[in-house]
Amino acid sequence: MFAMKQQDPDLGEQACVLCRRAEADPDICGPKRVKKGLCTHKYCLCLCSEFSLQERMNWFLAEDTRRAIQRAARKCCFVCHEMGAAITCSERDCNRSFHLPCASEGECVTQFFGMYRSFCWKHRPEQAVQATPEQNTTCLICLDLVEDKMSYSAMVCPACRHAWFHRRCIQTQALHTGTSFCCLLCRNKDQFVMEMLTMGIRISTRFMGELENRVGAEEQGQLGSA
Fold first, then answer.
1. 158: left (phi > 0), else alpha (psi -120 to 50), else beta?
2. Helix, strand or coil for residue 34?
3. Looking at the structure, do residues 145 and 110 belong to the same domain, yes or no?
4. Are 95 and 149 contained in the same domain?
């Protein structure tokens, strides 16, 4: 059986029943919510592999969450090797599961849009653009050196191919820049944002709303001209 309320023994703070963390990066896991005694991080719940896309779109009943917790309790996280891994790689026939707070350490990608898919290190999407940083290239955000090649941690703008940054830095930028999020060098917006979303960067809720409205308007325009 799962524990409906888990607490950090030091902080006394209620833990998410899915990832089992009382403390987790809110930029990745989102805020915690308590419903009928069940405490969950917003994105631990949204990315839970036990839910269908329709269930995610319609939100969740407490009973659905309890069933998901029970099923996740039988899955072992391939990163930390603890039970309760609610997220499973979306690649067919891959059974690697993990906790959302473990995703970065395991170099997994979780996509915070559309079907909310998740991928392990072996099956995660990678940037298709051909680019290699010059010697001593620094991240445009923190100004520390980036790796000497594109990797999970080192990313590049797909439009100009000259703006390099660390994954952790662009994630923070994406959430706190709001609707003006774009490449800091070439100012490209559409191609840059879609690439970041595909690579697992979560952008602000305001920007997501603007993006969805724009896509909806474009689709309506296409239907009207058909």
1. alpha
2. strand
3. no
4. no
Contact yes or no for 5/39 (Cβ under 8 A): yes
- Quote the pTM value: 0.79
d(CA 173, CA 83): 32
Half-sphere exposure of 137 (CA within 13 A, CB side): 19
Residue 115 sits in the same domain as residue 130: no
19 and 72 co-located in one domain: yes
Number of domains in the chain: 2
The C-alpha atoms of residue 219 and residue 226 are separated, in whole angstroms, by: 11
- Asked whether residue 215 falls in the same domain as residue 201, the answer is yes
Cβ neighbours for 219, distance < 8 A, ≥ 6 positions apart: none
Do 95 and 130 have their domain in common? no
- Amino acid identity for residue 2 in this structure: F
Token pair 């833990």 is found at 15
Q: Tens-digit pLDDT profile for the chain (226 aa)?
A: 233 334 444 444 789 988 988 888 888 898 888 877 888 888 888 888 776 655 555 555 677 778 888 888 899 999 999 998 999 999 999 999 999 999 999 999 999 888 889 999 999 999 999 999 999 999 999 999 999 999 999 999 999 999 999 999 999 999 988 889 999 999 999 999 999 999 999 998 777 766 655 544 444 444 454 4
Structural domain of 94: 6-119
Neighbours of 98 (CB within 10 A): 26
